[in-house]
Design a protein that fits this description.
This protein is about 45% helix and about 15% strand. A hairpin with a 7-residue loop joins strand 1 and strand 2. The protein is rod-shaped, with a radius of gyration of 39 Å. The model has no long low-confidence stretch (mean pLDDT about 80).
């Protein structure tokens, strides 16, 4: 006959070894992985606001800030370039 203390020690050892064996197994995933994020729609760069700083005539420190979209700036630059080209060609 074995004593109750020895039986308890054996039972405790068996339970602890079973618990360690269970802890060694990786846990099952709780949820499915999240779906891939939806890619963002391409951003139209021509609608992006761009600000430019222009020095005011007659002042060393005063600056005027002008904001337009990229497409508006392209139009403004084209008009100014054509005006300058026409002045040079006409000689006026």
């Amino acid at each position: 006959m074995s004593s109750p203390v020895v039986s308890f020690a054996i039972a405790a050892t068996l339970l602890m070894s079973a618990g360690l064996a269970m802890a060694a197994d990786p846990p099952a995933p709780l949820a499915a992985p999240a779906a891939a994020p939806i890619p963002a729609a391409p951003v139209d760069k021509s609608l992006e606001m761009v600000c430019r700083k222009d020095k005011e005539t007659g002042s060393l420190v005063r600056v005027r800030r002008t904001c337009h979209t990229r497409s508006q700036w392209a139009y403004i630059d084209d008009v100014n370039q054509n005006f300058g080209r026409k002045m040079v060609e006409d000689g006026t």
